[in-house]
Specification:
Number of domains: 3
Strand order of the largest sheet: 7-6-5-8-9-11-10-13
Shape: elongated
Distance between the termini: 88 Å
CATH architecture of the largest domain: 3-Layer(aba) Sandwich
Radius of gyration: 29 Å
Strand content: 5-15%
Mean pLDDT: 87
Largest sheet: 8 strands, mixed
Oligomer: single chain
Structural class: alpha/beta
CATH class of the largest domain: Alpha Beta
CATH topology of the largest domain: Rossmann fold
CATH superfamily of the largest domain: Vaccinia Virus protein VP39
Helix content: 55-70%
């Protein structure tokens, strides 16, 4: 058996190859972040769309790892093959980033709903993601042919894998915290492309300095057969991949409640997960060099994974929500990052290290001297990746929405037990019967008993965490009564009622809507302004985001509305949550002229042929990952295209839990699509709280007398009553909330950063304002430019004078 030193001498430059894998891993994760962001703008950002995207991405990696050994000769120099793969990845990435925005129209032309829509998404993603991801998946099997398929030889693959993951951590942090925050997808792609080219050139240079000695022809013919009796290892490593990605889905859902669902949180979780995999892979590589029974070692690692899953479940439900931490005391993003990093390490790192250890130990368990290393690595990697695909898809689309995070974690523990048992049984290598020695029986009994106990330790997600997220500890004695809690496919939500009768709808770990006066005013302003301001009858109305249904309900009671579509990404919201607010939303979900489309709003608008007379948008907070796509210039331009002549759009912009830079970005970007846009303020105790942006398809004066006349008719009695409940008793009262017009805010918006599809700048700006409450100063800075807009409002002199006085107050 070749010693590690001899293996290194026979195959020089192995340590340098680890560095090359760091570079290729960094590039790969930058591409993954960029491609998922770009593709989600086209196929949507719902759980199904993201599941299709992730499945396609990982499926390509799986296919690449399998097909390399089938179609690339063992006689080809491994370093040259690796270099050419890296160069091809970079070239294809450049093609994607430049052509993808222009070919989205092909998808929109054929996309639909239901299973046909899912198939169309998958086909579109496959066309663009399978080629480069197959190339990525082939890199590790390609370079594996530079070493022998012995436990000592494949241990180097553990170091390669660890280097690749280390690069992935760097790429994740670089893309999520700098490249996309400061630049855009093109710049990020160019950085990754440069890394690919550097790695490719270095690989070709090494290939010229080394000689590859392929195995004899007679040996080559036997290389494509998997080792006898290896199927239990493949099943075990597949189940390991399934538990790994399933756990990542569950942990991301629950940690995003605890930390805030910003893009930084998702990047942090991925970076810590990859860090654990890297540490574990290197540790596993060392174990694979010396362990006498890799299969038994793999079995005990799976046993420990069960314990790590239980530990994470305990931390997420019984520890982190109650840590005595007040996020508002943070002095800035760097301190918030430190808190979030500690929490993420506490939950994620133990399990991630163990999953990282599993891969190199599994390689040692199936590897033998007469095997093609490309086959050994390709099949093992493919089995692990197939399991990961199923884990991610089942956890996000089936387990959590059907049974919740508690049952999902229990299922993962059981799968870990099955994986452990498979390895603790001594399977025959060539025929014969399964051997169950006393030691194996004892190990299996201990594993099953441990699994049975560990599943009982998994508690349900606390209502308090779902409701108040990172502020759970602060609201421990002041949270009211939770009357509904649900975990949907896309988000977790709850409804609570305080002792004073106020009802709250919570999502993303915070109150998204409530019956508080200031919240009711904003929601009804959005709905009523959308239907009262259009110059023609608002027969067709679109509401983006259901929430508590108050905005949708306000728009639906306008007697001129004939059809109203509500685009809501989470099915639980319209079917369950909004019914708890029926007394405030006019029972909108049962209104016969209202239809609910469960879809990402952007995807719905891009794939529908309908146009509307009024559109109102009340999505998640802009710091929630994915919400920024509903505030881009391209999306606002799409809304303008979908408006009929004379149509009006209203958009919610929050000032609390935000920064002035983020608010400026939202406002300036909206004015790009609606250059004569308006702002109406919703104040609380006379101070800034949030605002409503108003855009007209055909800019023109607002007829105060016409609105007032409609409000006084019997047909509009319900609308007038709704307005009176929020303190508006006339058209003048409603329009006196005028805060600014686009041309008045040019000085304030001079340094605003536009939110574009290519950068989604808003989610990075808003993420830094998560724990800030500067709404008073933001609104004060905004309205310092306010002047009564001469010519904007028309009506009798008395009405205009009353409005002038109302605006000046």
């Amino acid at each position: 058996m070749t010693s590690p030193a001899a293996a290194s001498a026979e195959r020089p430059f192995l340590p340098l190859l680890v560095l090359l894998f760091v570079g290729s891993g960094c590039a790969a994760l930058i591409y993954e972040v960029v491609w998922l962001q770009m593709m989600s703008l086209i196929v949507g950002s719902s759980a199904i769309s993201l599941g299709v995207l992730l499945g396609t991405f990982m499926g390509g990696m799986c296919l690449g790892s399998l097909l390399l050994s089938r179609y690339v000769s063992v006689r080809a120099h491994p370093l040259r093959v690796y270099a050419l793969l890296e160069a091809a990845i970079g070239i294809y990435a450049l093609v994607i980033v430049f052509i993808l925005p222009y070919v989205g129209g092909l998808y929109f032309a054929i996309a639909g709903g239901g299973m046909v829509g899912i198939f169309t998404r998958a086909l579109f993603c496959a066309v663009f993601l399978l080629p480069p991801t197959m190339l990525m998946g082939a890199t590790l099997p390609a370079i594996s042919r530079w070493i022998e398929a012995t436990p000592q030889g494949v241990s180097w693959l553990g170091f390669f894998y660890g280097g690749n993951i280390t690069g992935g951590v760097i790429g994740t942090v670089l893309a999520g915290y700098y490249l996309l925050r400061v630049h855009d997808v093109v710049t990020a792609t160019m950085v990754a492309f440069s890394l690919n080219i550097i790695v490719a050139v270095a690989g070709l240079a090494l290939a010229k300095r080394t000689v590859h000695q392929p195995p004899p022809e007679s040996t080559s013919k036997r290389l494509f057969a998997a080792p006898p009796g290896s199927w239990p290892v493949y099943v075990a490593i597949g189940l390991s991949g399934m538990t790994a990605l399933g756990a990542q889905v569950v942990w991301t859902r629950m940690l995003s409640l605890n930390l805030g669902a910003t893009t930084y949180t998702f990047s942090l979780i991925l970076a810590v997960f990859l860090t654990g995999l890297g540490i574990g892979s290197s540790t596993g590589a060392l174990i694979a060099r010396t362990v006498t029974s890799p299969r038994m070692a793999l079995g005990w690692v799976q046993f420990l994974i069960m314990a790590a899953l239980a530990w994470a479940g305990l931390a997420l439900t019984a520890a982190l929500p109650y840590w005595p931490i007040d996020p508002t005391l943070s002095l800035g993003p760097i301190f918030t990052f430190q808190m979030d990093l500690v929490k993420t390490l506490f939950v994620v790192l133990p399990g991630a290290i163990l999953w990282g250890m599993s891969f190199p130990i599994a390689l040692a368990a199936v590897g033998s001297r007469d095997q093609d290393p490309g086959v050994v690595v390709g099949t093992t990697y493919a089995a692990n990746t197939v399991g990961a695909i199923f884990g991610a898809l089942l956890a996000s689309i089936v387990f959590i929405p059907t049974w919740g995070t508690q049952a999902s974690q229990r299922i993962l523990i059981v799968l870990g037990a099955v994986s452990a048992v498979l390895m603790l049984v001594r399977w025959p290598s060539k025929g014969g019967e399964m051997k169950l020695g006393l030691g194996s029986v004892g190990a299996i009994v201990v594993t099953l008993a441990a699994a049975g106990w560990l599943v009982t330790t998994i508690a349900p997600v606390p209502d308090l965490l779902v409701g108040y997220g990172r502020f759970a500890a602060r609201r421990l004695n002041d949270h009211g009564t939770f009357i509904f809690t649900g975990e949907g496919m896309n988000s977790s939500m709850t409804v609570s009622e305080l002792s004073n009768g106020v009802r709250n709808y919570h999502n993303a770990g915070k109150v998204q809507a409530s019956s508080e006066p200031q919240d009711m005013r904003l929601q009804r302003m959005l709905g009523h302004m959308a239907t009262l301001l259009p110059t023609q009858a608002p027969k067709q109305v679109l509401v983006i985001g259901m929430g508590a249904g108050v905005t949708a309900g306000s728009a639906s009671i306008d007697p001129r509305v004939e059809r109203q579509v509500v685009a809501e990404i989470e099915k639980l919201v319209p079917t369950v949550v909004s019914t708890y607010f029926s007394e405030y939303n006019f029972d909108v979900v049962r209104n016969p002229k209202v239809e609910v489309r469960v879809d990402d709003a952007r995807h719905y608008l891009l794939t529908t042929d309908d146009t509307f007379d009024a559109i109102t948008s009340d999505p998640f907070d802009p710091w929630v990952k994915g919400a920024a796509s509903l505030y881009t210039r391209e999306f606002f331009q799409l809304i303008r295209e979908k408006l009929n002549p004379g149509g009006v759009v209203t958009v919610f912009v929050q000032l609390y839990e935000s920064s002035e830079e983020a608010v400026k970005s939202e406002v300036a970007t909206f004015f790009e699509a609606f250059p004569e846009g308006l702002i109406f303020g919703n104040t609380h105790y006379g101070q800034g709280y949030d605002v409503v942006l108003v855009g007209q398809k055909t800019p023109g004066p607002i007829d105060v007398d016409a609105i007032e006349a409609r409000l006084r008719t019997p047909e509009y009695a319900q609308v007038a009553y709704s307005l009176s409940q929020i303190g508006f008793y006339s058209a003048v009262d409603l329009l006196s909330t005028f805060a600014a017009r686009a041309d008045q805010l040019r000085p304030w918006l001079a340094d605003a950063q536009l939110n574009l599809d290519r950068n989604l700048r808003l989610q990075y700006l808003a993420g830094f304002g998560l724990n800030r409450y500067e709404q008073q100063s933001i609104y004060a800075n905004m309205i310092q430019y306010r002047q009564f807009p001469e010519g904007l409002f028309t009506g009798t002199p008395d009405q205009i004078e009353a409005l002038r006085m109302g605006v000046s107050r």
